[in-house]
Amino acid sequence: MERTIFSEEHVQFRDAFRRFCDTEITPHHEQWEADGIVPRSLWRKAGEAGFLCPFLPERYGGSDADFLYAVVMIEEIARVRASGPAFSLHSDICAPYVYSFGNDEQRERWLPDCASGEKILAIAMTEPNAGSDLAGIKTTARREGDNYVLNGQKTFISNGQLCDLLIVVAKTDVHADPPYSGVSLFVVEDGTPGFEKGRNLRKMGLKAQDTSEMHFEDCVIPKENLLGEEGSGFYYLMEKLQQERLAVAVGCAASAEYVLADGIEYCRERKLFGKPLSKFQHQQFRIAELATEVELGRTFTDRLIAEHIAGANVVKEVSMAKYWVSEMLKRVCDEVLQFHGGYGYMMEYQIARDYLDARVQTIFAGTSEVMKLIVAKQLGL
């Protein structure tokens, strides 16, 4: 189906970002996968080109762009299979917390450097014993005079090695009832005494993206680094998770399209019993089924993008999309790998990397199971 959500300006922006991906990312990504991290110079180049935090007002280094510009970049990153540059995490997930809930001084202090790529953002929600259950976190922030003292640990933090600014979810009232009413958000700056970045975690996929453990031991931060109001952190997270989960769905929908396109091309070229795989009825039927799922995912996601930009509350629908489209991507990758036979199991083939990279999509930003719980709650169950 023809997509109608983009303007000519979005098309031109896509052309520019596509050139950036083809020249600055693709030639180097294999090395970054070996290194487990991308260089800071890439972030600065992206910032100089206007590709970081484009939603910000010009006074903070942005261009007042709508969410469709973020969609374009997410889709192009999926096209080149660039697991390393976590631009969307930085621009579409982390920066909005600072912009929406920070005060004027915080915005002036941090956001221009985020837009330029001089400072890289990450967010620390997950803990060893608290993943999707954000109300169950154990990291604490105790007020002492003009400071807060953080203690606790976080894990699976993307951009963990590179980050200069870390948004930390912590309990400021461990006795709050309900527990989520005692959650607050803080910005911890790299180099703060008591803040230690752990090892760069080895993962089965997304190998070029740095992912870390974080440790806070009597980490003293000024009260000026509290984002918004104390005790409102959980509500801020709920407000912003709609966009985070929509961004994941957008990436999964685009990835599924590119994986399936590659699979179809392989079936046209690969011969079995003297004829292309694509000429076998079973193969044709399976491709038709997958293509239908991919088209449904794309159409649903595009509708949600438009609703989100219009300011609608689509928490239920975004939760549906995050769950269903990420699971659909897993199915597509599994089937296309099967098309390849033994070759699909070899890391020299793109589908093997696609398969590994897809697996985490049903876990981060809220597992499929948690998404179903949210949908059920929204349905009044």
Task: Present the secondary structure layout.
Layout: H1 8-25, H2 29-35, H3 40-48, H4 67-79, H5 87-101, H6 104-116, E1 121-124, E2 140-144, E3 147-158, E4 165-171, E5 183-189, E6 195-200, E7 211-222, E8 226-227, H7 233-269, E9 271-272, E10 275-276, H8 281-309, H9 315-339, H10 350-358, H11 368-378
Parallel strand pairs: 1-4
Antiparallel strand pairs: 2-3, 3-7, 4-5, 5-8, 6-7, 9-10
Helix pairs in contact: 1-4, 4-5, 4-7, 5-6, 5-7, 7-8, 7-9, 8-9, 9-10, 9-11
What does this structure look like?
This protein is an alpha+beta fold and 381 residues long. The protein folds into three domains: 8-119, Acyl-CoA dehydrogenase/oxidase, N-terminal domain (Butyryl-Coa Dehydrogenase, subunit A, domain 1), CATH 1.10.540; 122-229, Butyryl-CoA Dehydrogenase, subunit A, domain 2 (Beta Barrel), CATH 2.40.110.10; 235-378, Butyryl-CoA Dehydrogenase, subunit A, domain 3. 49% of the residues lie in helices and 15% in strands. It is built from eleven helices and ten strands. A four-stranded mixed sheet has the order 1-4-5-8, with helices on one face. A four-stranded antiparallel sheet has the order 2-3-7-6, with no helix packed on it. The chain has a two-stranded antiparallel ribbon with strand order 9-10. Strand 2 (140-144) and strand 3 (147-158) form a beta hairpin. It starts with 7 loop residues before the first helix and ends with a helix.
